[in-house]
Design brief:
- Helix 2 links the parallel strand 2 and strand 3.
- A six-stranded mixed β-sheet has the order 3-2-4-1-5-6.
- By secondary structure, it is of the alpha/beta class.
Length: 194
């Protein structure tokens, strides 16, 4: 059984809207539609996703193409320590770097640490896989979510220490993991690389 983790692609950023409610842009939507019909996901029987709008939209497009109802979980949401709207690019880069370079420390007091976020996504992953096993493992699994928690899941599955070097190059990438062999089949690939 193959487990794929897909990060949402481009979104419409809106300073007046909480980032958890940002939706896919036309470009992002088109990319997911093309990915959904590429044939790569033909063996997929299960879709799990974050409860955030952009991830639900991503999973919904794939689910519609494959006739699968995605199951959403807040435990798959993006790390909540990055701000709810816009910040200056240099500030964002600093937050991002500190998040991955000091995983046991919050970027700002009161925010989730990378280690806490990794524990959360690992629990969500394991709960999802228990559901899959409980239904007889009828096919592959797709998880749709976000870049930071996707990176943390990648590190968890491969046994790597949390590090910025494992982050996706840009939104709209996926990795594939062989659940039975407990081995990563490949690192991040753009949705166009099938």
């Amino acid at each position: 059984m193959i487990v794929r983790y897909l990060t949402h692609p481009e979104v419409l950023q809106d300073a007046d809207t909480d980032r958890h409610e940002w939706q896919l842009s036309d470009v992002g939507r088109a990319r997911v539609e093309a990915f959904s019909t590429s044939g790569l996901l033909a063996g997929t029987s299960y879709i799990f996703c974050s409860a955030e709008k952009k991830a639900r939209e991503t999973a919904g497009i794939v689910g519609e193409a494959l006739s699968i109802m995605p199951q959403a979980s807040e435990d798959m949401n993006e790390s909540d320590n990055m701000v709810s709207g816009f910040v200056a690019q240099e500030t964002f880069k600093d937050y991002f770097k500190r998040f991955f370079s000091k995983p046991k420390e919050p970027v700002v007091d009161g925010w989730e640490t990378a280690m806490d976020a990794q524990d959360r996504i690992a629990i969500a992953y394991n709960e999802a896989m228990e559901r899959v096993v409980g239904t007889g493992m009828r096919g592959d699994v797709l998880m749709a979510g976000h870049g930071r928690v996707g990176t943390l899941l990648y590190c968890y599955l491969t046994g790597q220490a949390i590090g910025v070097e494992f982050t996706q190059p840009s939104p709209g990438h996926y990795f594939s993991y062989d659940w039975g062999a407990k081995a990563m089949l490949h690192g991040w690939k753009a949705m166009e690389e099938v």
